[in-house]
Design goal:
With 522 residues, this protein is of the alpha+beta class. It folds into three domains: 85 residues, Immunoglobulin-like; 193 residues, Glycosyltransferase (Alpha/alpha barrel), CATH 1.50.10; 109 residues, no CATH class. Helix content is 41%, strand content 11%. It is built from 14 helices and 15 strands. The strands form three sheets. Strands 2, 4, 5, 8, 9 and 10 form a six-stranded mixed β-sheet that branches. It has a five-stranded mixed β-sheet with strand order 12-11-15-14-13. The chain is globular.
Length: 522
Amino acid sequence: MKKVKLPVILLCLLLFSGCGKVPAATAVEPKVPGEENITSMEEEPVISYEVPESIPGILVNQLGYLPTGTKKAVFQGKEIPHVFHVIKEETGEIVFIGRPDEEVYDKAKDEYISYGDFSQVKAEGTYYIEAPILGRSYSFMIEENIYDDMFREACKQYYYNRCGMTLTEAFAGSAAHNACHIGNAVLVEDISVSMDVTGGWHQDEKGQKSVVAASGAIARMCLSYELYPKAFTDDMGIPESGNEIPDLLDEIKYEVDLLLKMQDAKTGAVYAGISVFTPGLDASGKASDIYVEPASAAAEKAFAMALAKFSYLYQQYDAAFATTCLKAADRAYKHALLHEEEADSMLFAAAAELYRAAGQQSFHQQVTSYLQNNKENLYEDEMDLLGGVTYLSTKHRVRTDLCEEIMERLMSRAEEISLESKEALYLTKGNEAQDNNMELLSDMMYLAVVNYIISNHEYETVIEDHLHYFLGRNAKAISYVENTGERGYEQAAGTLGLMKQFETDSKFIFMLSEVVINGGRK
C-alpha cells in the first residue's frame, strides 16, 4: 500500500474543515444598489504581442570583405567574451578562433565595444561570427570581386534617373519607365517664353533638376574616372555600352546635353534649374508643368567647372563635342564674372578647370589670386579639393610654391581624417545622423585623392573601414546601401540609402572606385 504524502493530507483537511473559505475580516462585501463603485488607480496592463527586434551584438559588414583586406568585427556590450569563432555557414566548420581586443568605453554614448580581427581568413565563402554571451552575427561573404556589382549599380543609378527617354526592362529592369517631361518648359520670369529642356537626370522623386547639384556630381565622377579609370568599363548595361567609350562618360554626356540647353545662347548666362509644379502651391498650374528657374552666378560657375572638366576628359573620344563644351564653359565663366566682386571656391574650381583645358593666363591669374588670398581656410570646401587637384595635374605652367602648399594642405587634412577615424568607436567619425553620411563620404574623397598621390596602405584601410561602416558595422547594425545586407536602412526612420540620394551617390562612386582598384589590386 502506497503512503499518502503529508502535503496532500493537509490540503484535504483544510478543504473539508472550512478553512478554505474567506475569513470574515477579509470577506468581499456585497454591492449596495446606488452606491458608487471605487475604481482602482492601477491601469489595465497593456500587453504587446509584437516580438521586439533583435539586433546582433556582433557587427560586421553585411555584404562582406575582400580576401586580402583588413577584416574586423565590432563586439557591443560590457561583457565581452574571451574568444570568438568565424564559422563557415555551409558546413558549420570553425575556420578561425580569435580573441577580442580590450574593450573601449565611450562616455558620451555610454557604450562599450571591442574589436575582433579575423584578417587571416582569406578563403572565399559565406561566414558568420559567433561568440559566447553575444550570439552570432549576420552572415557575410569573402570574395575577390565582392564590391564590383555594388559599384556598377551605384554608377547605374544615374541611368535609372534619366528623364525624357523611355527606359526599357532590358536595361533598367524594375526601374523601367516611359519617357517623362518631354514637353517644353516655360521661364518662371516670363511664361510666354518656352524652352526645350528635355533630358538629364531626375534629382528627386518629383523630377526636379538643379544645375549646381548636377555639376557637382559630374565633377566628382569625372575626378573619380581621372584617378581610377580602370574601375570604369564599357559594359555596365546601358544603351551606350559597347561603343568603346567608358559608360560613366556616356552617362555624364547625357546630363551635359541638358546643361548645354540651360545656357542662354546670346549672353552665356546659365539658368539655375528646372522645377516641377507642385499641386496646391499654384492653382493655375498642372502636375505636368515644368518651369525654368532664373539664371544665377552660382549656376554659371558650377556649369563652367563641370563642362570644362568634362571637355578635358572627353576630347579623346569626340573632339568636336569637347570643344563645344569648353566654349560654353568659357562663356558661362565670363558671364559669372560680371556679377562676382570676390572669387569664391566655385569660381576657383572653374578657373582651374578652364586653365588646364584652355591654357589662358587670365584663368591662371584667377587661380593664383585665390590660392594666395585663402591660405588659412583652404580645403574647408569640396570645391577647393577639386580645383586644387586639377591645378596640381595641369600640364601648363604652374607656380611650384602654390603646388607645394596645396600638397601640404591635402596631406594635413588626410592625416587628420585618418587619426580621427582610428580613434572613433566604429573606426569612423559616424554618429548615425543621416547628414553625417555625407560628411563621411566627403572625407573619403580626400583620402582617395591623397592615397592616389602617395599610395598609403593606412589610408586604404581607413577607406575600407568606412565602407564596412556603411554596410552594417555601425551602432544600429544597418546597411545604408540598397539591397545589401540582412538589415537595411529602411529600419532607421527618415534614412535613405546612399544610392537613392543624388549627391551621396556620386561620392559613394568616388569611394568605391578606390576600393575596387586598390582593394582588389586591379
